[in-house]
Amino acid sequence: MSRYLITGANRGIGLELTRQILAQGHQVVATCRNPGEAGELNTLTNAGELQVVQCDIGKPDDIAALVESLHGSTIDVLINNAGIYGPRDAVLGNLSREPWREVMEIDLLAPMMLTQALLPFVLAGEGKHIAFLSSKMGSIADNSSGGSYMYRTAKAALNQAIKSLAMDLREQNIIALSLHPGWVRTEMGGPNGLIDTATSAAGLLNVIAEAVPSDSGQFIAYDGKRIPW
């Protein structure tokens, strides 16, 4: 039995990841901003070993409280899933600083600060996997349509941070992965997504499970395909 910690576990891909991991018989520490409003997540409490913890990853005090609640425990797999897209009308000519800062805060700074805070727990675990849900939209080589300035830049910056993390932690046998979940039919991805959350989550978990040290620092899609930076 492994112990996972998943951020943003109350909906979409995070919720489905939690559901599938529990079904495999593992333990999950599932974080979200408002556990009292996470109806579907709370219904999973009898599906396995689930601990729902309040944590807004954008708030340092919440991260500190999460660290305190985990005292004496370990994490085998850390999945940084929580993220935001930003305003849909943030197109060239209508860009503004504060919304852009918020996207960078939640999609880049928050997961990196959380990972830094939780690193001792991962090092003490057996799995030693840290996965980040990035996006193909963060690929500079793949950008052929433009737009989505806030989301694209945040994910591109996150990818660079993950690459550095992988290099810095390779001697400690940590596997750090940048993962593309696919275009998923979720609240963020919209109704026209190509795959459902079950397909995405199953693929992501398979990539994580099969990852070896040489995969650390790589940009990988849910179906195992490598994505150009």
From TrEMBL:
Transmembrane segments: none annotated. InterPro entries: NAD(P)-bd_dom_sf, SDR_enzymes, SDR_fam. CDD domains: carb_red_sniffer_like_SDR_c. It comes from the Bacteria. Signal peptide: none annotated. Pfam families: adh_short (PF00106). One of its GO terms (molecular function) is oxidoreductase activity, acting on the CH-OH group of donors, NAD or NADP as acceptor. Belongs to the short-chain dehydrogenases/reductases (SDR) family. This is Short-chain dehydrogenase.
